[in-house]
TrEMBL record, chain A:
SMART domains named among the record's database cross-references: WD40 (SM00320)
Keywords: Chromosome partition, Repeat, WD repeat
Name of the gene this protein is made from: CIAO1
Alphabetized InterPro entries for the sequence: CIAO1/Cia1, WD40/YVTN_repeat-like_dom_sf, WD40_repeat_CS, WD40_repeat_dom_sf, WD40_rpt
Ranges for the WD repeats: 22-43, 57-89, 101-142, 146-177, 190-221, 299-339
Function: Key component of the cytosolic iron-sulfur protein assembly (CIA) complex, a multiprotein complex that mediates the incorporation of iron-sulfur cluster into extramitochondrial Fe/S proteins. Seems to specifically modulate the transactivation activity of WT1. As part of the mitotic spindle-associated MMXD complex it may play a role in chromosome segregation.
GO annotation, cellular component aspect: cytosolic [4Fe-4S] assembly targeting complex; MMXD complex
An annotated GO BP: protein maturation
Family the entry assigns: Belongs to the WD repeat CIA1 family.
Protein name as catalogued: Probable cytosolic iron-sulfur protein assembly protein CIAO1
Oligomer status and interactors: Component of the CIA complex. Component of the MMXD complex, which includes CIAO1, ERCC2, FAM96B, MMS19 and SLC25A5. Interacts with WT1. Interacts with FAM96A.
Automatic annotation (TrEMBL), chain B:
Keyword annotations of the record: 4Fe-4S, Iron, Iron-sulfur, Metal-binding
SMART domains hit by this protein: Fe_hyd_SSU (SM00902)
Upper classification of the organism: Eukaryota, Metazoa, Chordata, Craniata, Vertebrata
Known role: Component of the cytosolic iron-sulfur protein assembly (CIA) complex, a multiprotein complex that mediates the incorporation of iron-sulfur cluster into extramitochondrial Fe/S proteins. Seems to negatively regulate the level of HIF1A expression, although this effect could be indirect.
Domain Iron hydrogenase small subunit stretches: 410-466
Self-association and partners: External component of the CIA complex. In the CIA complex, interacts directly with CIAO1 and MMS19.
Biological source species: Chinchilla lanigera
Domain of life: Eukaryota
Full protein name: Cytosolic iron-sulfur assembly component 3
């Protein structure tokens, strides 16, 4: 495991503040970071170093908690504790705030674009998940307000190919939503975590979902469609999601983020013990009961809690991380050879 | 557990933890006096507080008062457990009044009047498999059996809400060149919508909202003013109960605007949801179907309430339909026989237009449910609302689907709602202009349409709730 995760560089992304989240653009050329200083910074490479290309200030009145790029790469959404979500339009190196989505009662915790590019999801401490639709004139309308969770909703993520939405909450559950007629409904609740679920990540195929929690475990859930070979019972025409693997004993503190590399299938975690870990599925493992091995464990990746890990969508093994220490770090991951 | 209040009111911090730093919507007002140094507070033996100034002068301090209604509308610190307790008290409250009536001397008894909404009646009709008329008669029988004196139908008071809404719209439409922000007119009968508007959008949205009182509150005026006079009673001698399809109507009844200062009495003393009436029936071990039907009561002598009547335009009151048809006639001389609704984004957001020679003369909409209210308000804020009038209701599918309506364990929600809608729609429709008793009341009780009395008794006002912003209400 030695040298499987190598530091490429660090930048003081949000000085004197926390860096909360990172998002690579779909082309993998830019990294957006956001933080407690209410700013969003866009990073790009100049030669071997990472430089700040743009600073998006004047958008939010409070901490920016998450950022997300649209599938086309021309828009950036930012979710803030000021209860709004800003939509920024990219014009070369400039970003202009074209719309502000209002409506949540309090802090917006997460925002995510659907793969189709027409839908956006936001979630908030007000316990609700909102689905928005954008039309050709860049007008956003609320399509659904989902009040399924009983506590603060921390994260939302879309399925890579289906119009399926997942949310994670302080109520210890993960909920899945789909469209039904003219509204959205919660069709499954994944229970098992013993504390707040902080983040979610779908695997490249979309058949599995990873969740990470304050209970210091990562759980892998698998989708079973009605009529599946394994005989897993389904209700009506909705799939069932079952927990097929739990990674426990690896993390000593809360796991704040999990990222599933869409190129290699490697799983990275961001932990409150300041470390970054990478897991890989054992090649011979049973798809219904997979086993994962820890292939990288970088202690003191940052000097404080690691809040986010993000795999570059185009360059295999390139990983970015950020922390309460305000810094963003870039890493190169090599799967370790041999025993 | 799921909150019984409408979705619009649910999006507040209701949970079972009282966060000590949550904002209360009733911040204590501090009168800042110039040049004041440190003031001391002295507590007397009787528990009263006195502020002691520098020069030794004392001033008795008023107790900060937070009423139950403030709490229900805010939920800033009250936990969900308490709100559930509060909402479940009402039928016990009624029972207490009925029991008291039995024990006190006649001059201390209160006249108990129950006003039943047609939506609650339809829900009970569906549950007991009765026609709306049978349900009305048997409910009358039941309430009188337990000690009520009169049982009315809020369809009657709704006539006034509809007429006032019609008149108000035409006035605002015609006056739009004079003052800004007169259009769109937003319907006001739904307290879930009103509480949300007051709390979240405050002074921005309130000028658009119709000032017409809801049928419940018009009934409050009718019972405590007109009917009280007829019965030679002061308003406080009447105990007025309404039966409503939702819990939000309890908030509406307890608004200070509907409190009679002179007689220290509310226009509506108690609101029971349909579910609470069902519980009352169970507690009395009464099977509604087996009761002997009683004749229906009417508020005025000229009305013969031999049969039930209803209004066109759906189960939430028909505001759009009535305002639209009246406006088409009054403003453009066009008679609209049938109003055509066009669903837009979803079935709870529908549009109605009046067109002539390719021109759109009127564009109205129906917006039910929180997501549609959101979109409407955001459009308004951006100055992009194309509507002249919007019938806004907090509950998806409207009042027939209110949070206090009966659920059936063996019937899926949608099917049950369809049954209730069918039963509601069965009743013969009458226009407010033609309803016996209404014009008479305008003449004699209100002293004319658009009179000062009419405005006082049939209209109301709204109050923005200003929240003190504080960085303290962060919960992790």
């Amino acid at each position: 495991m030695k040298d499987s995760l190598v530091l490429l560089g660090r930048v003081p992304a949000h000085p004197d503040s926390r860096c909360w989240f990172l998002a690579w653009n779909p082309a993998g050329t830019l990294l957006a970071s956001c933080g407690g200083d209410r700013r969003i910074r866009i990073w790009g490479t100049e030669g071997d170093t990472w430089v700040c290309k743009s600073v998006l200030s004047e958008g939010h009145q409070r901490t920016v908690r998450k950022v997300a790029w649209s599938p086309c790469g021309n828009y950036l959404a930012s979710a803030s504790f000021d209860a709004t979500t800003c939509i920024w339009k990219k014009n070369q190196d400039d970003f202009e705030c074209v719309t502000t989505l209002e409506g949540h009662e309090n802090e917006v915790k997460s925002v995510a674009w659907a793969p189709s590019g027409n839908l956006l999801a936001t979630c908030s401490r007000d316990k609700s998940v909102w689905v928005w639709e954008v039309d050709e004139e860049d007008e956003y309308e609320c399509v659904s307000v989902l009040n399924s969770h009983t506590q603060d909703v921390k994260h939302v993520v879309w399925h890579p190919s289906q119009e399926l939405l997942a949310s994670a909450s302080y109520d210890d559950t993960v909920k899945l939503y789909r469209e039904e007629e003219d509204d959205w409904v919660c069709f499954a609740t994944l229970e098992g975590h013993e504390s707040t679920v902080w983040s979610l990540a779908f695997d490249p195929s979309g058949q599995r979902l990873a969740s990470c929690s304050d209970d210091r475990t990562v759980r892998i859930w698998r989708q079973y469609l009605p009529g599946n070979e394994q005989g897993v019972a389904c209700s009506g025409s909705d799939p069932t999601w079952k927990c097929i693997c739990t990674l426990s004993g690896f993390h000593s503190r809360t796991i704040y983020d999990v990222a599933w590399c869409q190129l290699t299938g490697a799983l990275a975690t961001a932990c409150g013990d300041d470390a970054i870990r990478v897991f890989e599925e054992d090649p011979s493992s049973d798809p219904q009961q997979p086993t994962f091995s820890l292939t990288a464990h970088l202690r003191q990746a940052h000097s404080q809690d690691v809040n986010c890990v993000a795999w570059n969508p185009k360059e295999p093994g390139l990983l970015a991380s950020c922390s309460d220490d305000g810094e963003v770090a870039f890493w190169k991951y090599h799967r370790p050879e041999g025993p | 557990m799921a909150s019984p209040f409408s979705g619009a009111l649910q999006l507040t911090d209701l949970d079972d933890f009282i966060g000590p730093s949550q904002d209360c919507i009733k911040p204590v007002k501090v009168d800042k006096r110039p040049g004041s140094a440190v003031t001391k507070i002295h507590i007397e033996d009787d528990g009263s507080y006195f502020q002691v100034d520098q020069d030794g002068g004392t001033q008795r301090l008023e107790k900060a008062r937070v009423s139950l209604n403030d709490c229900l509308a805010c939920s800033g610190c009250v936990t969900s457990a308490e709100t559930v307790l509060i909402t479940q008290q009402s039928h016990e409250e009624l029972r207490k009044v009925l029991d008291t009536n039995k024990t006190v001397p006649p001059d201390q008894r209160r006249l108990v009047v129950i006003s039943v909404s047609p939506q609650s009646r339809a829900s009970l009709a569906a549950r007991f498999q009765l026609s709306p008329t049978d349900t009305a008669r048997k409910l009358t029988s039941f309430f009188k059996k337990i000690g009520a004196h009169f049982v009315f139908d809020t369809t009657f008071s709704r006539n006034f809400t509809l007429l006032e809404s019609q008149r108000e719209f035409v006035q605002r439409f015609q006056g739009q060149t004079d003052s800004r922000e007169t259009l769109p007119v937003l319907a006001s009968a739904c307290p879930g919508w009103i509480c949300y508007a007051e709390k979240t959008h405050g002074s921005f949205i309130l000028p658009y909202i119709s000032t017409a009182r809801s049928p419940q509150q018009v009934m409050g005026s009718l019972v405590k003013d007109f009917f009280a006079q007829q019965q030679n009673l002061t308003p406080d001698k009447i105990y007025h109960v309404t039966v409503m399809p939702c819990y939000d109507k309890k908030l509406e009844a307890s608004r200070s605007d509907f409190f009679n200062q002179e007689y220290q009495t509310r226009d509506v003393d108690c609101v029971l949801t349909t579910g609470e009436v069902f519980r009352l029936l169970e507690e009395e071990s009464v099977s509604l179907a087996e009761l002997e039907p009683a004749p229906l009561d009417s508020l005025t002598h000229s009305m013969s309430a031999k049969e039930l009547t209803s209004h066109r335009g759906g189960g939430s009151g028909g505001y759009l339909e009535h305002v639209f048809r009246h406006a088409a006639q009054e403003l453009f001389g066009i008679h609209v026989a049938e109003v055509t609704y066009r669903p837009l984004r979803n079935k709870d957001f529908q549009e109605v237009t009046l067109e002539k020679e390719g021109h759109v003369l009127l564009r109205f909409a129906v917006a039910y449910g929180f997501r549609n209210i959101q979109n409407l308000v955001q459009k308004l804020k951006r100055g992009r609302c194309p509507y002249h009038y919007v019938e806004v209701m907090a509950c998806p599918s409207g009042c027939l689907n209110g949070g206090g309506q009966l659920k059936a364990p063996d019937v899926p929600g949608r099917e049950l709602l369809q049954q209730v809608e069918r039963l509601y729609g069965m009743i013969r429709v009458e226009t407010p202009e033609d309803t016996p008793g209404v014009q008479e009341l305008y003449r004699h009780w209100l002293q004319g349409e658009d009179s000062e009395r009419a405005n006082h008794l049939l209209h109301t006002q709204y109050h923005a709730v200003e929240k003190a912003s504080s960085g303290l209400n962060i919960r992790w």
